[in-house]
Amino acid sequence: MRAPGFWFQDPGLASHLLAPASLVWRLGAGARAILTKPEQSSVPVICVGNLTVGGAGKTPTTAAIAARLSAEGHQVAIVSRGYGGRVKGPYLVNPARDKAVDVGDEPLLLAQTATVWVARDRAAGARAAAHEGAELILLDDGFQNPGIVKEASILVVDAEQGFGNGQVMPAGPLREPMMQGIARADLVLLIGSPDQQTRAAARWPSLGSAIRASLEPIQTGMDLDGQPVVAFAGIGRPEKFFETLRGLKAKLIATHSFPDHHVYGERVLARMQREAAQAGAMLVTTEKDAIKLPERYRREVLALPVRLELEDWSLIDSLIARLLGQKHRSGTASLA
User: Fold this and answer.
1) Entry pTM
2) At 70, which helix (H) or strand (E)?
3) Contact criterion met (CB below 8 Å) for 306 and 60
């Protein structure tokens, strides 16, 4: 779905009219939390989640933490719901064989960095990952999922859009009340440019102590400065991708926005390919979108990857070291 424009404006008539439905949403979520007994994993679980509907940067954050842990020699596994895929799981993703239509686009992308399990039942996914030797589990999304105990939660916030109008769905973009969610988080990660971060912290003072981060494009060897480009994206906020291209000084001939997790049909791809060819332009998309394209289009479309860059990793490093230390002490005690 595309987020309604009024979600990111001061609360108006539409938000007020939908307030009763928001109350129903909150009551349903509260009842689910009360009636669900969370399962304790045998290894630490860190949730990377957010409070709003749409892309805040959870997947790049999960990938960055997984890569950092793997580089330090830790056996880390990612558990994802596999949104958009058909597999219910628990299922170990094989990036060389699996397709996005089966396991979802985000798990397929994350599997290029670490071991990924797709599981609609997050607790079952965690059990499978632990059984196969994971010493720490990263839960990609699931901050509002009550089915599994999280030893820690990292809340990701988009600095440009923040919490929108501050209302809970469907009156606004929030999955739960803002302060309630922030209070449950161990760390908050604010992703955006320095100016966006400053404005977000001024509007929402609770973000003042958040870890600052940005999503930076990785140069692919193709200089986009002055390059004519037809760009398309099916992510939470396609405009963020188009702004990245403008920042690289690409000459955007046309931009095409699609809903998050969009599956591209041959007709749409052929039309955009013709449009680019007629303009003498390059067809460019995100990594997440490229991984869903038919093989022949992947050779014709440039995928622009982005990576999370943190000002300071120390708080996340300390959090992980504490959890792994607790696991080690617990294991030693049980052997004694």
Assistant:
1) 0.92
2) helix 58-71
3) yes
